Amino acid sequence: MGRSLLTNIGPAPAPTGLLPIAAKGFRPFFLLAAAFAVAIVPLWLAMLGGLLRPVTYLDPLVWHSHEMVFGFATAVIAGFLLTAVSNWTGRETATGPALLGLALLWCVGRLAPLLADSIPHGLVALLDLAFLPALAVVLARPIVASNNRRNFVMLAILAVMTTANLVVHLEALGVVGALSGRRACLVGIDVVLVLIGVISGRVIPMFTRNATGASSIRSVRRLDQATVVGLSALVILDATGREEPIVALVAGVVGLVAAARAVYWGPRHSLREPMLWILHLGYAWLPLGLVLRAGASLVPWIPRASWVHAATVGAIGSLCLGMMARVALGHTGRKIVAPRRATWAFAAMSLAAVVRVFAPVLAPSSYLAFLTAAGALWTVAFLLYLLDYMPMLIAPRVDGKAG
């Protein structure tokens, strides 16, 4: 993504004459993801504090988890894949009205649960469930047409996420048992971590090597494969409800393997470049979260939720922010240099993860205060992103090219 996004074949030319916001998938979806991130956490905190009535369609905790995974993270994934797949295949994915229609479908899915008191619950489910299959169809056409076998995994990831989302709604409709929605959200987190495992191995060492010229930076294929296989195993274990000791053991082993692969990616070379260190630091939360998951089953004072927030706020939040920042610069024709406010956004996100994961362990009596602080830092991070990047996302490329 130094010059383009994971170029295997070359970027597909976007049609000319389009509104800039509709020219490439990253534009509307990164804008929506950042705006949603700014709104959703304060909304959740207001519900926890009794200032707003909780959502009635889903259990409030399930709703929060659902919106962070199937709302925020899915928007970032959509923006990334719609842009990347056109580069991987040399064929366009969705632009113009089709792209804006996908974005509208995502928005409808976010609003539907909030309107559940006014519309049939079955319609709420259908409106939210429509987005991921539609995205998969749009992405499948160029991937299959170009026989891009390496990226069939992306379609499998979207299929599993769709299934997990379906289970959340089936619980809300009373079709499956209680707690199924929580398990489905956990599986959704697992699937996003699989995607992180795949994409990080492709891009972080490449970006770091290209930016620093350090020839020692490389990927170790066996460690990459072992990490992705292990993360996929966790999806299966969580989906089937395996006993925690087994899951904890697998998580601990995968965490160590995931950490080992990153040693070869040159993290020490990234310290002076914010566009690099946010990716390395974001990835570091993935093995840490897995090790915390293993530790929580052995050490009583480690909250079981710690690993979830290391994975979500730490890994998913940081990597989404870092990739959104990088992709937007590269694909609007700009140099890959972090704007000043973006650097502060990276710092705020990193601090939010530290507070969310470790403060409840160190000061459990002040849990709500630290939760609020972490939420505020998360919100500030994406607000700073919007201040720097909204003008880029809605304006034509600075180099005059289409896209």
UniProtKB/TrEMBL annotation:
InterPro entries: NnrS (IPR010266). The keyword Transmembrane applies. Coiled coil: none annotated. It comes from the Bacteria. Signal peptide: none annotated. Keywords: Membrane, Transmembrane, Transmembrane helix. This is NnrS protein involved in response to NO.
